[in-house]
Design brief:
This protein is an all-alpha fold and 196 residues long. The chain has ten helices and no strands. It has two domains: 1-46, Arc Repressor Mutant, subunit A (Orthogonal Bundle); 48-193, Tetracycline Repressor, domain 2 (Orthogonal Bundle). 78% of the residues lie in helices and 0% in strands.
Length: 196
């Protein structure tokens, strides 16, 4: 196996987790498919907890930070436009796999929330970072008189909860329409916050 064995194992496990869930993923099948030894797996990930932590910290968190945090840290122009652009990009890139299997973050939240406190806390910290970044961007927009007054923290929570809920319902219905309709309405709502 060429390249970064650890990263290849982690990426393959991430795909398995998306399709089957964390606790149903069998590492022995992953390493067999990748043609790596059990020793290599345990060298990089001594137990399933270490594998879960790496999955959250190295796959899920960077993806979500790139999507939500980076564009909103220092938004150029109206932060509402940045949020709308994020939604439009998500819609543009929405694919059959996302509809079939749902959002990896949401799936892990659902699976870990009541059974693994360490994983739950990691995911909660990530969610709080995203909501806080969005709330700060909205507050800056209000200070610059680009946005009407709303409770920025509650609005950020509402937007993220709506996104994750839409993914969950699309997975249940096996239809992208739930995501599309939710995002269309969220975009209308966000546009209504902008001062003309």
């Amino acid at each position: 196996m060429k390249g970064n064995t650890r990263q290849q194992i982690l990426e393959r496990v991430a795909l398995e987790v998306l399709q089957k869930g964390f606790y149903s993923t069998r590492a022995d099948l992953v390493i067999k498919e990748l043609k790596v030894s059990k020793g290599a797996l345990y060298h990089y990930f001594p137990n399933k907890e270490a594998l879960g932590n790496a999955l959250i910290d190295e796959i899920i968190a960077p993806f979500l930070r790139k999507r939500w945090v980076t564009p909103l840290l220092e938004p150029k122009g109206n932060p509402c436009d940045v949020i709308v652009d994020i939604f439009k990009e998500i819609l543009q890139n929405l694919n059959e796999q996302q509809v079939k299997y749902g959002c990896p973050f949401n799936n892990l939240v659902q699976e870990f929330a009541t059974v693994n406190e360490g994983f739950r806390i990691r995911l909660e910290v990530l969610l709080d970072e995203i909501c806080e970044t969005m709330a700060n961007a909205l507050q800056k927009g209000q200070e610059q008189e680009l946005i009407y007054y709303v409770d920025a923290h509650k609005t950020a929570q509402f937007l993220i909860a709506s996104v994750e809920g839409a993914y969950g319902m699309a997975k249940l219905k096996q239809s992208s329409e739930f995501v599309k309709h939710t995002f269309e309405n969220l975009i209308t709502y966000i546009d209504s916050l902008k001062r003309k």
